[in-house]
Design brief:
The two termini are about 25 Å apart. The radius of gyration is 16 Å and the shape is globular. It is built from 7 helices and 10 strands. With about 200 residues, the chain is α/β, with parallel strands linked by helices. The protein has one domain: Alpha-Beta Complex (Spore Coat Polysaccharide Biosynthesis Protein SpsA, Chain A). Strands 1, 4, 5, 6, 7, 8, 9 and 10 form an 8-stranded mixed beta sheet that branches. The chain has a two-stranded antiparallel ribbon with strand order 2-3. Helix 2 links the parallel strand 4 (about 45-50) and strand 5 (about 70).
């Protein structure tokens, strides 16, 4: 079955200064465009980009790409409100790769690894890439958890669902520090970019 991609770029980036995280440089492109281009190359369908606080510049950064832009009108209520806006726009029955833009240095091979593991493990419902014992993003969700995602409070973290699925959570070891490189601040972004460049910038 074709997997959908849900790219989250709706936040205000308050800890990041004036520039939206979605627009930071990642090699020769912006963070959000890199995510979208990787998902296109991997064949995800549809590719849904959730926008909010910085809608106009994020949409401009995606110009020319065949992606669906969804506006999270209630993004200010919490990150989960934006996730729910994106999930609601994806056809029911579709597994979802969820990739927040604050993890822009993930290698394409990590997505392939998640897909490979999920294709062989029919009991798992939530696949988390793990680097040196630490889980990160993007994650792969089975379509079966869609109702649970949509029933969460908008201000409740998505990870609040993890205990509910217990043994159906799969932690997938990857050799990719990008999965744990969360660029919440400019300092974190600079450190993650330097590390990514040291690996060849791929």
């Amino acid at each position: 079955m074709t997997i959908a991609a849900l790219l989250l770029a709706a936040g205000e980036s308050t800890r990041f200064g004036e520039l939206p995280k979605a627009l930071v440089d990642v090699g020769e492109t912006s963070a959000i465009r890199r995510l979208a281009e990787i998902c296109l190359a991997e064949g995800y369908d549809p590719i849904t980009v959730v926008v909010g606080a910085h809608r106009a510049p994020v949409v401009r950064a995606l110009h020319g790409l065949p992606v669906e832009v969804v506006e999270a009108e209630r993004w200010y209520e919490g990150r989960t409100a934006s996730v729910q806006a994106g999930v609601s726009a994806i056809p029911p029955g579709r597994d979802i790769l969820f990739w927040p833009v604050d993890h822009p240095f993930v290698a394409a091979t990590t997505l392939e690894r998640l897909e490979s593991v999920a294709s062989r493990d029919l009991l798992g419902v939530w696949f988390i890439p793990t680097y040196r014992g630490h889980g990160g993003h993007p994650v792969l969700w089975r379509s079966s958890i869609r109702p649970d995602l949509l029933e969460l409070r908008p201000d409740a973290p998505v990870r609040a669902l993890l205990p509910e699925f217990g043994p159906q959570i799969r932690r997938v070891e990857v050799d990719d520090p990008g999965v744990v490189a969360n660029i919440d601040t400019l300092e974190a972004y600079r450190a993650a970019r330097e590390e990514w460049m040291s690996r060849g910038g791929f």
